[in-house]
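Sat 14:20. Reprocessing the chain from the morning session after the first attempt stalled halfway. Input below, unchanged.
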Amino acid sequence: MSIVQPAAASRAPDYDVIVVGARTAGSPTAMLLARRGWRVLLVDRMTFPSDMMSSHFIHAYGVARLARWGLLDRLLKTGCPPVDRLASDWGPIQLTGTPPPYEGYRFGVCPRRIVLDHLLLQAAQEAGVEVEQAAGVTGLLGDADRVTGVRLRRQGRAPVDVTARYVVGADGMRSFVARTVNAEEYHTIPSLTTTYLTYWENLPMDRLLIHWRPGRCVPAIPTHDGLTVVLSGWSHDEWRRYRSDVEGNYLETVRTQTSPEFAERFQDARRVHKFVGTHDVPNFFRRPYGPGWALVGDAGYHKDPVTALGISDAFRDVELVSDALHQSLAGERTEEEAFGHYQRRRDELAEPIFRYTIEQARYLPLTNMQMLVLRALEIDDNARDRFFGVLAGSVHPDEFGSLSSVATLLMRTGLMPGGAK
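Finished this time. Tokens:
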């Protein structure tokens, strides 16, 4: 462990937990801990409301958590439309379905981050969290054995040392906390895609639609204010060419790598925002805990945005890490027991969808077997909905994609010998 600042003088900690990063992982973590009575400081170098690049969508298993936290109705009242239809277009095959419910919820939402992040921060404050905006963490306090706090720099003021029993890094895939404690990384796969996005008016959508083409991907999703966010993805090995003319390459991709119906409607759309994008989207897991510290959200586990699962996964892991923190702080379990369970459960839930995401992010041409399965899904309504349930969290990826499940589907639809006639 590499602590860049000396330990603070021996005294009672200022807080039980300091959470670094106040977006979709940090604010809910702080909120849930404060609701259990813990003293929490939430810090972020940005001020809110503020925007950021994101794949935006929250699938049903994320929606269920917003409901559990009492925040779903508040989000819907901001004008964020529920999206209960998912669609995938591979050119010769187009599938549309509604996934099976997850804890009673069949829809997702696609909020603008400038709305969602501010709403989550406000909920944390309402729970009693102390919030420091425009405050950067420049170092961790501690010694060779344990993190004991942070060195905080507020705008225009001298640095101050703030202590806590735990420091949580919710500060994204480039997490300062993770780098400082040298968190072990595993299942590492370099960036596979490069993506740019912007927002369009006069392009109404009633579903999440993803166009898949070899080397290309074009999702389109309805969001706030009647707008549609459209993303244009290329394979990562072409990112320099994409960056050389972002607008031209984005527009050409949307016009030529989508369905004729969508491309025609896109001609009348009007762009209302600048292009934003990145080619730096590594895939990895990090060990999410150590003496006096923990990681949550993209700081602890990051994958390509092509499946738009980042926010939903962050919400899931928020509940896991807040449980571990509570159990350790309250003395209900040892630190190793509480956080060891957190890591095991996180990985158990995340690894199957991580593998699925990596496969999708390669943007490879369909194999003959994949084409056959998609043809079967065209025929079988129930199987098609279950296919979309993989993203919604209501169907396990391994359950749907196992050899026996595929064989049963092909036989039931008459596309495999021994099946229906």
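The longest strand covers residues 160-169.
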